Structures are given as structure tokens and as C-alpha cells.
Amino acid sequence: METQFDEVILLIKQARSNAIKQVNIELINLHWQVGAYISSKVANAIWGNKTVAELAAHIEKHHPDLKGFTKRNLYNMKLFYETYQPTLKTDNQSDTIVQSAISQFKGIDIKNTDLVKLGWTHHLVLISRTKSLEERQFYLKLTIRENYSVRELERQINSCLFERVMLGNTNLPKNIKSKQKDISNIFKDSYVFEFLNLPKPHNEKDLQKALIKGIKDFIIELGKDFLFIGEEYKIQVGTKDFYIDLLFYHRGLQCLIPFELKADEFKPEYLGKLNFYLEALDRDHKKPHENPSIGIMLCKGKNDDVVEYSLSRTLSPAMVADYQMQLPDKKLLMNKLHDILS
């Protein structure tokens, strides 16, 4: 009977989840419509700057049961509409004869767009914290895919995830690009581990233990398609045992991803061990339906020229990334990305 009861509970929870999603869809669509209405009135000089404040005061006085329509939030709705409206195809045209102000906006509906898949607070963060359409779309799609909470979204923006991923896309070795399709936006040029609180200095073992202890935050930094397999993962070649620092599996790429950890700056000789691990994984551990493994050398720092020379003749799909113990300088990353792309 308990199994049957659990099935009923599952139905209840599913219905509740669907109801919450539907409420959010209606709420975001309402904010869009209100923002569109206010934007149109202000743009056509029908309303002045004080009118929005008067609207907020009117709602508070005559309709106190309607919460969330303060002056600030009404302006946020206007900004929400003006931010995304240029990127969406919406039918703003109503009948030739417009009978009322409301009918003018009947065609504005975003219920079938990605915008309704996020909560209002998510949108406030995206609008206030991103500076370009590309950056905003990146975080919007990533938040939907990874199901980020507001806190997780803010953390990724604080850690300059967009800039780091764009740099990672630019610096991906050719042999990885040729062997794997749809690999963009998966690997980063640099990883941020401010959540580890590691001592200075620290060694590879300290780093490994801290990453395992903070595996939840580590997965958020990597991306939720990374599945943790194990630490000190044993592989046997001949009669000898070897141990991979960290081994992951990526669901999207369908391949094993070993991490080799170094607590100092990258050196060319470090690649030899990582290439050895990749060969052993592909020969003895990779399943027939899986793609070739991709190795990541995670170092405390790296010289891009040294990395490029080191990877230029290797046939193994490996990449080198560095890690930082504090949040990066967004302006420096933006300048670096601009220099590479210009």
C-alpha cells in the first residue's frame, strides 16, 4: 500500500510543480505587458517621469491587495520590456480600430519564449548585471539549462563565467575541436575556486582534498553535465598501477574527462602523464559508444605561449586551464578577450 500511496504523493507534487510553473509564466508575462504599456506611454510623451510614481501610489492607495507594484518595480518592468523587446518577434499590432489602451497590447505575449522559464528575481539580476546582449543570452540559457538558483547565477556572474568561457572557446586546441562537435561553452580558460579557502601556499594534495570536500560547488563551477566518477581513480597498465587525480564523465560529450592537478605554473613535461592517462582510459575503460576522452591539466598559472607550443604537436585531446583562488577582475578579462578577438 505504501507504494501506491507514494504514487499519489508523486501526482500531487507533480501537479503542484506544474501549478507553480504556470503561475510564474503568468507573472512574467504580466510584468512584460505592464512594462510594454508604460514604455509606450513614456515613449510617446503621454506620460512624464512622475506618472509612474503616481501609478504606484494609486495602486497602493486604491488596490492595497496588489503587491509588487512599487515605483521601483514598475520601472524594472519597463526596463525588462525595453531590454528584451528588440530581440523578440512580438505582435504589437492589434485591430485597425483601437477601442481601448488595453487592446493595443493584446498581441504582446511571451508565454512561448525562454523568458518565462526564469523567475522575476533572475531577470532583475540579468538586467542589472550584464552589459551586452550576448552576455545576457549566455547567462539566460545557461541558467535554464543548469537550473541555477539566483545565488548560483550571481556567483557565476561574479566569477566572470561568460568571459572565461569565451576565452576557453577561443583557446580550445584544434585536436579537441576536430574530434568533438558542439564543444563550445563547455570548457573554461580559467577556473575560480574562491569557495575552497585553501592556504597559501598549498600543494596538489591540498587542492584535491578541498575540491572533493566542496564537490557541489566544484560541479557548479564546471557545469552540471559533469558527473563525478572518483578521486585517485586507479588504472592499471601492465603490472603497474597509476592514479588519476580526478575523473569525471560529461553527459553531453559522452566522454571521460580526467583532471590532472598542479599547484604550480604549467610546465611542458606535465602533458606526458596526462596523455598517458588518456591513452589508458581510451584503450581499457572507454565504452564502445563513448567518444575519446578529453584531458584537462589544471595549473596554478600558465603562460599561453608555452601552452600553445606544448600542445601544437600532441595528438591527444588535452587542454590546459589555470585556477584562481579569488574572483577575477572582470575588466582585465574583457580586455584580454577583446585583444584575442580583435
Which descriptors apply to this entry?
alpha/beta; 13 helices; 342 residues; elongated
Describe what this molecule looks like in 3D.
With 342 residues, this protein is of the alpha/beta class. 50% of the residues lie in helices and 13% in strands. The chain is built from 13 helices and 6 strands. A 6-stranded mixed beta sheet has the order 1-6-5-4-3-2, with helices on both faces. A hairpin with a 4-residue loop joins strand 3 and strand 4. Helix 1 packs across helix 3, helix 4 runs parallel beside helix 6 and helix 7 runs parallel beside helix 13. The longest helix is centred in the N-terminal third of the chain and has 42 residues. The protein is elongated. The relative contact order is 0.08.
Ordered list of secondary-structure elements with their pairings:
Blueprint: H1 2-43, H2 49-62, H3 71-84, H4 120-129, H5 133-146, H6 150-158, H7 161-170, H8 174-179, E1 190-192, H9 204-213, H10 215-222, E2 226-237, E3 240-250, E4 255-261, H11 270-284, E5 295-299, H12 304-311, E6 318-324, H13 330-341
Parallel strand pairs: 1-6, 4-5, 5-6
Antiparallel strand pairs: 2-3, 3-4
Helix pairs in contact: 1-3, 4-6, 7-13
Low-confidence sequence ranges: 90-106
> Based on DSSP secondary structure assignment, what is the total number of beta strands?
6
* Overall pLDDT level: 83
What proportion of the residues is helical, as a percent range?
Answer: 40-55%
The helix count comes to 13
Percent range for β-strand residues? 5-15%
Cα distance, first to last residue? 67 Å
Main sheet attributes: strand count, strand direction, barrel closure: 6 strands, mixed
Q: Structural class of the helices, strands and pairings? A: alpha/beta
Helix and strand pattern: HHHHHHHHEHHEEEHEHEH
User: What would you report as the Rg, rounded to the nearest angstrom?
Assistant: 25 Å
Shape: elongated
Strand order, largest beta sheet: 1-6-5-4-3-2
